[in-house]
Specification:
The complex is a heterodimer of chains A (226) and B (197).
Chain A (H helix, E strand, L loop, with lengths): L1 H8 L12 H4 L3 H14 L8 H23 L4 H31 L1 H6 L8 H21 L32 E6 L4 E4 L7 E4 L4 E5 H9 L3 E3 L1
Antiparallel strand pairs in A: 1-4, 1-5, 2-3
Helix pairs in contact in A: 1-4, 3-4, 3-5, 4-5
Chain B lengths: L3 H12 L10 H27 L10 H38 L5 H6 L2 H21 L14 E6 L4 E2 L8 E2 L4 E5 H9 L3 E3 L3
Antiparallel strand pairs in B: 1-4, 1-5, 2-3
The chains are: A mainly alpha (226), B mainly alpha (197).
């Protein structure tokens, strides 16, 4: 059991006592979770839910918890137990924080998310949460403001009935700048449509770019945001 | 001037420290609602006048038309201000769910309107049902853990409690060495303070 969780969590691999090939180390679930968490934290909009990864992480956390409990019971060196505990706490933090950041984005832009293709990026539970967020906010706004306004101005999505599009929906600012880094050299990448703004991605260099043009690269995992 | 009161509402709101709200300004809020009704009446009156003069309402561009447009825009501006006021307050109130837990602190409750309190309860319930579905409490572990244990001072008489690894008597002013995950809930409720080592 212990060795299973060591593999899963890369326990000690950072300190160099286990000989791990760096390319394998980069693909342990902890690294993947860390990456998903970092990307989610830095991206202005909600990203694809890593449902398999979250599921695996949960299972491994449970396994770790059992391991720690077992060690605690059978009188293993308290220092070892506390190191395992610390590793467990850190992974749990990563997972919680990952889910938390997503919920906070949903809280902020539920209507926008539900109207665009970002809706499919949510997990089933998140979709339920988003629906409730929308309903609760709508109820609150209707009760406080909208029901007291004259006819024709009561929509939550439109400023008035003469608006053709929904022009009252808060949406994330996709033009914001993000710090990003590429693992491999990607060569020249075009940032705008006219082709005047080209960036040459060199491996492990840090770039500050607008989120929108590099969005496809983040989505397919070619670059990470930090 | 049209819309002044509504923008004052927002100025008052943004004069607060970030993350703080002042009492719901019912008086000004109601006044702005009244302004909206007044604009609407004027707007309708002007529209009727155009129609009575036998002009086409879609294409007429006379003084009455522009008067109506101004009332329409003033109404929209007021609506946006009112919505922004309520929406931004709601955002602060909902962020408290993460910071202090499922019960609004008294000093916030005094400042919140009835609808805002209700919104907080509903939103809080939505979050709880999500957390029970994923079987994870997301309100703990708000800061990255450095050490699994932390030293805390108890600020209020809490009494005997069962924690994950011990059941200490948390008397006021006593100092304990607890698991971070256990201590966090007390810290966020203001019942303990963390002692930096």
């Amino acid at each position: 059991m212990a060795s299973g969780s060591e593999e899963g969590f890369g326990f000690g691999s950072g300190s160099g006592d286990v000989d791990v090939d760096p390319s394998i180390a980069m693909t342990t679930d902890v690294e993947l979770l860390k990456r998903a968490w970092r990307n989610e934290k830095a991206a202005p909009e909600i990203l694809q839910f890593e449902s398999n990864l979250v599921q695996r992480s949960k299972e491994q956390i449970q396994l770790m918890e059992e391991t720690v409990e077992e060690y605690d019971g059978n009188g293993t060196d308290p220092l070892t137990v506390s190191l395992y505990q610390m590793d467990l706490d850190r992974t749990q933090f990563l997972l919680r924080s990952y889910l938390r950041i997503r919920l906070q984005k949903i809280e902020k832009y539920p209507t926008h998310i539900s109207k665009t293709d970002t809706w499919s990026r949510l997990s089933e539970q998140e979709q339920k949460f988003a629906k409730r967020c929308m309903d609760d906010m709508e109820k609150h706004l209707t009760q406080s403001v909208l029901s007291r306004l004259p006819y024709g101005y009561q929509s939550i999505l439109k400023q008035s009935i003469s608006s053709e599009e929904d022009d009252m929906v808060p949406e994330p600012q996709l033009d914001t700048f993000v710090f990003c880094k590429s693992k491999v050299s990607l060569g020249a990448y075009q940032l705008d449509e006219s082709g005047e703004d080209i960036v040459d991605f060199v491996a492990n260099d840090l770039y500050v770019l607008r989120y929108k043009p590099v969005k496809p690269l983040i989505e397919n995992g070619q670059i990470d945001i930090v | 001037m049209y819309g002044r009161r509504a923008s004052q509402l927002l100025k008052d709101f943004s004069a607060n420290e970030p993350g703080q709200i002042s009492a719901f300004d019912t008086e000004n809020f109601d006044q702005v609602i009244k302004e909206c009704d007044a604009h609407h009446l004027e707007l309708q009156a002007l529209m009727r006048k155009i129609q009575e003069e036998g002009l086409d309402i879609q294409t007429t561009r006379n003084a009455d038309h522009y008067g109506a447009v101004i009332h329409h825009l003033a109404l929209i501006r007021n609506k946006r201000c009112l919505m922004a006021y309520v929406y931004n307050r709601a955002e602060i109130i909902q962020s408290l769910r993460w910071k202090v837990g499922p019960v609004l602190p008294e000093e916030v409750q005094e400042k919140a309107s009835y609808s805002e309190e209700e919104y907080f309860k509903n939103h809080s319930a939505a979050l709880e049902s999500y957390m029970s579905e994923v079987e994870l409490d997301l309100t703990v572990d708000m800061v990255p853990p450095k050490d699994p244990y932390t030293k805390v001072r108890v600020l209020d008489d809490i009494g005997d409690v069962f924690l994950s690894d011990q059941s200490p008597n948390l008397a006021r002013h006593s100092i304990h060495f607890l698991r971070r995950t256990d201590a966090e809930q007390f810290i966020s409720q203001g019942l303990m303070e963390e002692l930096s080592s």
